[in-house]
Amino acid sequence: MKPVPEALLKKHANLVQSEGVTVVSHTQRDVGDWVLQTLMIEDCDVPFKYKRPKRFKSLQGQKVNLIYYPAKESVAGFEIEVMQVVRVRRY
């Protein structure tokens, strides 16, 4: 059996994997029944976003492995590039 990340990457061509990246900022904001998690990664100007049902321990300063889709989001009439996270694991 293949490890989960390899199976996901092979099945979905648009997925990207980043290993051992350092989290510079981790914010958590309530949005309805969900908590929107936003990560900023060292040497990257694009936010990494994902939703979870509850708050988690802060990942700030931690090294993580990420699997994500590049996406675009419209904010105040401007299109902004974001990364929609599928999986986060501490490194």
Overview of this structure, please?
The protein has 91 residues and is mainly β. The protein is built from 1 helix and 5 strands; from the N terminus they run H-E-E-E-E-E. Strands 1-2-3-5-4 form a 5-stranded mixed barrel. The longest helix is centred in the first third of the chain and has 8 residues. The chain starts with a helix and ends with a strand. The mean pLDDT is 89.
The first-to-last residue Cα distance is 22 Å
Total count of strands: 5
How does the overall form come out from the CA principal axes?
Answer: globular
User: What fraction of residues sit in β-strands?
Assistant: over 45%
Strand order of the largest sheet: 1-2-3-5-4
The residue fraction in helices comes out at under 10%
The rounded Rg comes to 14 Å
Query: What's the total helix number?
Result: 1
Structural class: mainly beta
Low-confidence stretches: none
Largest sheet: 5 strands, mixed, barrel
Order of helices and strands: HEEEEE
Q: What is the mean pLDDT? A: 89
Keywords:
about 10% helix; about 90 residues; mainly beta
In short:
By secondary structure, this protein is mainly β. It has one helix spanning 4-11, and strands at residues 16-31, 34-41, 48-52, 63-75, 78-90. Strands 1-2-3-5-4 form a five-stranded mixed β-barrel.
Strand-helix topology:
Layout: H1 4-11, E1 16-31, E2 34-41, E3 48-52, E4 63-75, E5 78-90
Parallel strand pairs: 3-5
Antiparallel strand pairs: 1-2, 1-4, 2-3, 4-5
